[in-house]
Structures are given as structure tokens and as C-alpha cells.
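[job 0412] stage=fold_complex status=start
inputs:
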Amino acid sequence: MEIEEVKDREEREPEELLHIEHLSVSFEQYQGGMEKGDLQVIRDLNVTIRKGEITAVVGASGSGKSLLAHAVLGILPYNATRRGKINYRGQELTQEREAKLRGREIVLVPQSIGFLDPLMKIGPQIRKGKKDKASRKRVDAILKGYSLKPEVGELYPFELSGGMNRRVLVSTALMETPRLVIADEPTPGLEMKLARRVMEHFRELADQGAGVLLITHDLELAMETADWIVVFYGGTTLEEARASDFQEEKLLRHPYTRALWRAMPQNGFAAIPGTQPYAAHMPTGCPFGPRCSRCTEECLQPVPWKEIRGGRVRCAHTEE
Amino acid sequence: MLLEARDITFCYDKNNRKILENFHLQVESQERVGLVAPSGFGKTTLCKILAGYEQPEGGEVLLDGRPLSSYGRYCPVQMIWQHPEQVINPRLRMKAVLEEGDQVEERIVGELGIEPEWLSRYPGELSGGELQRFCIARALGKRTRFLLADEISTMLDLITQSQIWGFLMEECTRRGIGLVAVSHSQPLLERVCTRIQSL
Amino acid sequence: MKKSFLGWNGRKRTFVLFTLALVLLGVVTLWGQLGAEKALETDFSRKDLAPCLAYPFGTDWMGRDMFLRTLTGLSMSIRIGLLAAGVSALVAVVLGTAAATLGRRVDSVITWVIDLVMGIPHILLLILISYACGRGFRGVVTGVALTHWTSLARVMRGEVLQLKEAPYIQMAEKLGTKRLAIIRKHMLPHLFPQFLVGLILMFPHAILHEASITFLGFGLSPEQPAIGVILSESMKYLAMGKWWLALFPGLLLVLTVVLFDVAGESLRRLLDPGSAHV
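[job 0412] stage=fold_complex status=done
writing structure:
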């Protein structure tokens, strides 16, 4: 009876775990002297994370990737304002709900190893202070999974290398059984083999039913592990594609995504000129417009979404 | 010119395990050498030793047979760090940051895609990729002979990465600057380097 | 969005608060200076008056105007505080920087002295030094200056130590920047705000300590219209119901201390990057 009820509930639950629509984040800042202004860093951002899948968000630094994570976790800085809709498991994710779920159902694997407590040994840090036998066992198992010796649990973060600390960061998220894992750049500084191992762990979490939001600039890694790849640029979503679309350039939809693809060392290492515009000077239309060879009149206005080949794109020129 | 690491041994603590032991490396001016190593190897430490930030426990770093310290105040071996925001004083405007370099040519600033408007900004108002361009320009002063790139594009997006490396390859060839690149990305090193050494 | 007073934003409010505190303190100092002569005037025809319109703080047993006496006393206190805190802050910067830059031996000596001075109760050390220097203006200033530098010195030492390890400063060395240029361009701009805030927050301490040792009779001489003297004299008359002799000078002393504190705190808020956008 009880089991059936649980099963029933699980079935009724929407497949979409996290749905973000028209998210915008702006910062109140002083500009030089005494005048205050608003700096809009994210505008009209859309992401969907499904249960049991890994969704990778890729984009340049300053595209708003990390802020997205902070917005979902409710840990934006004090001078930031969030607008738009974030739905978690079918219900609006309010500030109170964020605070309640954070660290339990929604966990963050942070970007910087500065998030580790420098005065706490690795073991207790992963256990989050729990002292029971089961937790200790679990820590040992997790360390082993990352080819770290059990003795590492007795060391302090400064005694480990950058790469080892990074593995510790990932393992802190594994102590709980989260529904939504947000990983903010979990792999820079890791060699490919270890990065892949970290990704395998995320895949395991997804297989157990969790949704994973992987924030990265490493397109190669995203292609290998993610189910969906969402491309950010200048604080906006430009494209949502299946990871398999990245096998071939012609399957991709947005000119920026194609430029990214061509810039990969194994795909030609070709660079287009220019840089992402600064948040204060963002064009009203497509943010990629100033660097795009196909930019026309239409691109200067906000560009609507188009559904193409099972993905979505915000480009006036992409055809079926 | 020849940059040479001879018999380098390094450990952070007297009784701790050695990070580097009897390490050898030779890099010619015309070369671009890629270093691949497992994480925890001490790649950053190695770069710091090669650029004179750290003194090794044993062995020496020689430039054309002379120790680095004999080259005067400006170090001809310049290192570019993984995190540009750490090596830029947050209270200086970017123009002043650039002026820290050794008479950096206008041409370099332009070719790196640094826009004139950025010069009046503070580091906090630029992205990591933009800051890294400044760090690279600053390191390419007149007296620079060798460049050490420690995971310089790890935190950058693909387009910025290829822009920066495209520029560096051309600049190093043009001026005969030797390059040592550390990265965990094999395909990147294969693109950039003339020789790859596994550690 | 919150509506704020006059539509001012946080930074404007803080700035106005800071300026207001400084202006008030300036007015007290000047007024006290200008009224110094009149504060000494005795007039037995008006002795022991309770506060009224003509004498807002009343008069004492010699018919002296307590309002002017208080202002003069405060102005003296502020000047002593300024001088003592200034000297103290200078000592703190020199010793703190020296500890951080001149090698391990100098560091351990300076750290030891800091611990030593901090270990002795402030007031005791102050009295000793002031007494040894012959009390009076010089004694008080020397005493306060020599006892108040420790915590700021410790902060400065920590900051310089941390700065020395900062990658951007190591980088500057490798780029051939001269030592002095590194100090001027990279270190001072970072240290100055901390120094300034430390200095301003040191004033209230200096003033309170000046008042207390004068009160105890180890500071300024009884002829001088210092707050400590006023308070200790009024003690005798309190039992006779002359409450105004102690109340107003005491309140004004507290107000001065609070004003300095407000000025220091608001300056810190303006300069601290952690709250720069409030």
C-alpha cells in the first residue's frame, strides 16, 4: 500500500525538475561617486532541468553562468535583484523554499576550492561533522571512488594539491542524496582522466533520479557527459540543444554555438574576432549581433524562440 | 637563448614528501614546449620555480648558463597565471596595470583585442578572459625572452582560448620568445606546441 | 524598493553622517577655544545657578559658566585626543610595517612588545607613564600615545604580511618594479583606508582615557578646565543637589565619543568593499 503510494507520487511528479523562465538578475551599484545605478547582468535566461538528466550550461565568463547557480540556491549578493520565474518540482521556488532545500535536496558543488574550510580536516568536512559509523564508512568509500587514500581524510586542505581539493569538493555533495545537483565549474585544473571520473559520479547521481545542472566552459566535457547543452552568451540563453547535436557543426542552430564548435582545438581552433559585450553596453537584440556575420535589422530587436530539430534557438536566421 | 632547469628538487616542508625530484628541462627560444602531468604533480610550483618566484631546494634554473637572478630587476622569464584576477591589483585601473609591463607595444595591446575603453576600468568590471588578455600583454614587455603559461586558458571559453593562443603562437615566433605551456588538455597542447613532454 | 529619507541612497546617507559628525566636533573644538577666557571668569553674583536660558548648563560655586567650561574642556580633550591618537597611529604604522618587513627577529621583538603592552591594564600603564612624565598636557599625551598603538599595529602587521604574499605584488617584483614604487602603488592604497579608520576609532578611546586619568588626579592640573577636572570637582557638590554640574559635562563627553565612533564607522562603511554597494 505504502509502496504503491510512493510509486504513484513519483509517477505524478513532472519530469521537469527545475524550470527557469525569463530570469533576470541586476546589481545595484555606485558608479564612481554618489550615484546609484542598476547593472543588468542576466536578462531573459531560460533553462530546463529534467529528472535523471545532466544539463550543461556553457558560456564565456561573464555570460551569467555562475549567477544562475547562485540565483537557484538563493545566495545572490546583497545588492542583487532577481526577477522572473523559477519553478522547482512544479512549484515556484521562493526565497524561503530555497533556504529550506539548500544543502539537502539542492546541493552545490562550488567553483572555487576557497569554499573548503581551511581549518577542518578533509574527513569531517565531507561528513559535515557527522560522527556515526555509517558516515565514516561512506566517506572512505567516496574517497576511494576518487582514488584518494583513506589517510587523506586526516589531512587539512592546504596539505592537498589543487586537483585533490577539487575532488574533495565534489565528494562533499555526495554525502546527501540530493534531487538537484548544481555543479559550478567542477573540473578546471583536473586532468582529463579525473575530470571524466567526476563526470561519472554526476552520471551516477542522475541515474539515481537526480537532475544535474553542470555549469562549465569546457564544451568538450559537456559534450561527453551531458544530455542537454544550453548555450549562454551575454546573460541570455541562445540555444538549447541535445549533446549529440554537437557531433556535427551543421546540426547546431546558433551562429555563436557554431563559432564555439569551430574554436575547439580538435575542430580547427578557429577564432572569431571580438569579445562579449560588457553588461552595461549590452545590445537590446541578439547579444551576439555585433560579432555575427549574418546580423541584420531583425537581430537588433529581441529575437523570439524557434523550435528546430528537437532543440530551441534564438536566432532570426536559423532555418529548419 | 636556452632556458634550463637542472636537477630541480623541491618540497614545501622539510619532512614532507618531495613535490619535485631531480627534474630536468631544456627549452630553446624557438620552441613551444607543452607540459602534461597528472594533477598533484606540482605544475604550478614548477612554473614558479622556472620564473624565479620560488627557490628550489636543490638544483638551479639557468638562462644561457647564467642564473636568473643575475639578469637584474626585470625577470626575462615571465609567467602568466591561471587566475588573472589574483595577479592584478584590484585598486588599479587597467591602464596602470598595463604600464607595469616593460614598455609593452601598442601593437600587442591591439592584437590581443584589448579595447581602448577597457583601459579606464577597474579589474572588477572586466571578465576573466578580458583580464587574462591584460596579463598576457603585461608579460610581453621588451625584455621578455621566455614565457610560462600555467593553465592560462583553463578558465576561459573556447573562442577566447583560441584567440589568445593564436596570438601567442604568432607573437612568440615573431620575437623568438620561448614558450612553456602547462595544460591538462592534450588536444590544445597538440595544436599549440612544437614538442610535448610528459612528466 | 525601500523609500529612504529625502531619497538619499546608502552611500549619500553615510557620507552626510560622516560630515555632520566631523562638523559638530569641529564646532565644539572651535567654540571651546574661543570661549576659553570666559570659561575661567568667576562671578560670585551668579554662583550656583541651576540651568536656565542664559546659562544652559548652570553655573558652579564660583559662578563660572558651566556651558563654556564644558566646551573648553571638551575642546582640550579633543585636541589631546587628536595629538595622542595621531602619534599612536604613527607608532602603530611604523612598528607594524617594520615587524612585517624587517625579518623574523625584529618581528618577534615587536610582537613581544605588543603583547607586553596589551597585557598590562591600559589605565594602569597610562597613569604610570603620565606620572613619570610629570603629568599635565605632556604627561597625558605621552601616556595615551604610548598605550593605544598596539591593536592598530597588530592589524597593520597582519595586512602587510598578507600583502607581501599577494600574487600581484610578487608579479610586480618580477616585472622589475622598484621596492618604493611597490610600496607606493600597491601597498599604501590598500593600507591607507584601514589606517584612517583605525585612527578615527582611536579618538574616543584617547578622549575617555584622558578624562579618566584627569578625573583620578594623574592627568591635567586642576586649574585647567578639563572634563576630568570638572567631573571630579562636581563630585563634591553632587550630594548638595547640584546635579547639573556633573550631568551636562558627562553627557557631552559621551556625545563626543559617540560622534567620533559614528564618523569612524561610517568611513569604514564607505571604504570597505564588502559593503560598498549598500
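[job 0412] summary: Residues 231 and 246 of chain C are 6 Å apart (CA to CA).
[job 0412] exit 0
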